[in-house]
Amino acid sequence: MKIKSIAYLCALFAALSASAETLYWVDTKTFNSTFNQNSGRNLLDTEKSSEEGNDNYNWATSFTVDADGKPTYTYADSVAAPTIETDVVIDYSQNAFEYQMAGSLSLTGDQIFSAKSLTITGCNNNWVMFNLESSSAIQIAEDLTYNDNVYVRFTTGNLSIGGDVYNNNTVGYNNLLFGAGGASLTSFSAENVYLNHNNAVITFSVGRAATTYDQAAGVIRGVIDFGANTGRVQFAKMADFEQFLKVGGLRGTAGTVTTEAVEGVNYTLVLTNPANQTFSGAVANAEGSSVNIVMDGSATQVLSGENSFSGYIQMENGTLLVRTAEGSAHGKLTLNGGRFGAVGNAAVSSAEFNGGGFIFADNDKFLSGAGVDLISIAGEFSKVGADKIAIDFNGLDASGLIGNTYDLITAGSLSGMSSEVDADEYFDAENLLNAIADFEWNGNTLQVTFGAVPEPAEAAAFFGLAALALCVAARRRRG
Predict the structure, then answer these.
(1) 8 Å CB contact between 41 and 48
(2) Which residue would you say has higher pLDDT here, 140 or 4?
């Protein structure tokens, strides 16, 4: 089971002592009442705190708890900084103050902080600031787990997580920020990201230097998984840069992917699905901002919620199926490869074909007489690529639909195509069983009529006539 139980942490803190492989960051100077974000300690520092009256090292090796469940930490005579074999816990539940700005847990220059895992919990409604410089790095070999009562921000630098990110936050005003606040992580990577509560929020601002989708400095190798939770992944503004985050898919029955509630955010979600995923939450953006989608996977991503994002859609590989919220429209659709389709209805401002095609994936709609998942292009539908545009029927057995006509794609205008020319010149049916597809224009609407497959004798006669016509044409050219 992927969800990290908060009960596990409670059991951990109820123990009389902790393993020597676990270290606890406990320097009280990290939090202070001066609202100075630069007042904290370096994560690699193993000396005693310089704060008056505090003889604690930054790193504790064990603890006991009193009747109220508050821990008292134990310090060795000398404590080394964590290594890749160390589980690290940051917990400030023993501090009396709350709702104050934290100092920072810092790294400078090209310093690297390593740990086996990182758990942030019980931080008493304060901020935990990881204040890195652009070339410094935090390397977590396994998981990063984020729990209640803490506002966490990694300001910049490189954050590498070998395992998963678990957001278990239940407090609505808290947030886990990778970048943001006018800063951007240099790079970010993790396996999967899990939002395990309705109040779980994660903000991304990663990789201002990337200029194209394949250079994305933010990489989630697996999925962003909302489960059934209405949590939120949001993208932060970073000047006028387009930012890119590669994700192996979106999964969940609820939740939102969006931008911060400010204008000027331009963030591109690059879907690299190696396996089929369905997300029935919503992809959206604030007014004046945009979320874009590039599909560059080998499998299928279904976005079946009420999606209102206004950015562009770019198809490179794989299959993307999108439902557009009523009254909304996405930006330009660019087809360079793969298959694009609708769930109910997909609406875009314009479309350009260079390769690939469209897919009509819901066979049940055809067979039940419910129509088709229409693709609406408000403006120009432009054919640039020389190949025919693929219309993929996803294995539809149309033997019972002979003679039926369906609208497939509507457009405001055509470029590189003419509604005066037989639409079969531009479109080619794929994955259609027991029928043939006759494409035709009705104004700027592409329609398909299913016809019966010719009997063998009729087919032979047809191909014989076609061969004869080719021979006659060849003789005329030689003459």
Answers:
(1) no
(2) 140
371 pLDDT higher than 90: no
Task: Using alpha carbons only, give the angle 285, 304, 366 rounded to the nearest 5 degrees.
Answer: 140
Please state the rounded mean pLDDT for residues 143-168: 92
469 token code pair: 């016509």
| Cα distance between residue 236 and residue 154, in whole Å | 13
Spatial distance between the Cα atoms of 38 and 106, rounded to a whole number of angstroms: 8
How does pLDDT run across 420-459, given as a tens digit for each residue? 999 999 999 999 999 999 999 999 999 999 999 998 755 5
Predicted local distance difference test score (pLDDT) of residue 50: 52
Rounded to whole angstroms, the Cα distance separating 406 from 440 reads 10
Structure tokens at 323: 């439902």
Pairs from 424-427 (Cβ < 8 Å, separation ≥ 24): 425/388, 426/383, 426/388, 426/389, 427/388, 427/389, 427/390, 427/391
The values of phi and psi at residue 181, to 5°, are 65, 30
pLDDT at 473 over 50: no
Find the angle CA(285)-CA(287)-CA(289) to the nearest 5 degrees.
60
User: For residues 104 and 452, what is the distance between their CA atoms, to the nearest angstrom?
Assistant: 72
What are the CA-CA distances from residue 170 to residues 197, 293, 407 (Å)? 6, 29, 47
Q: What is the DSSP letter of 31?
A: B
Rounded Cα–Cα distance for residues 68 and 48 (Å) = 27
- Among residues 453, 449, 474, 473, the alpha carbon closest in space to that of 462 is found at 453
In 3D space, the residue among 122, 61, 64, 65 whose CA is nearest the CA of residue 86 turns out to be: 61
- DSSP H helices, 220-295, are none
Q: Provide the pLDDT confidence category of residue 37 given band limits of 50, 70 and 90.
A: low
CA atoms of 227 and 166, how far apart (whole Å): 12
Residue 413 and residue 443: Cα distance in Å, rounded?
9
Tally DSSP H helices, then E strands, for the chain.
3, 40
**Rounded distance between C-alpha atoms, residue 456 and residue 320, angstroms:** 37
Q: Which two tokens stand for residue 424?
A: 């079969």
Q: Note the pLDDT tens digit of each residue in 79-118.
A: 778 999 999 988 766 555 566 555 578 899 999 999 999 9
Neighbours of 89 (CB within 10 A): 23
* CA separation for the pair 1, 276 (Å, rounded): 20
Q: Are strands 144-146 and 117-121 parallel, antiparallel or unpaired?
A: parallel
pLDDT on residue 38: 57
In degrees to the nearest 10, what's the CA dihedral of 417, 423, 427, 429? 170
Largest CA distance in the chain: 106
Q: Measure the CA–CA gap between 235 and 261, rounded to whole angstroms.
A: 10
Considering only CA atoms, give the Rg of the chain. Answer: 29
Among residues 234, 254, 222, 237, the alpha carbon closest in space to that of 176 is found at 234
Across-strand partners of 127?
151
β partners of residue 248: none
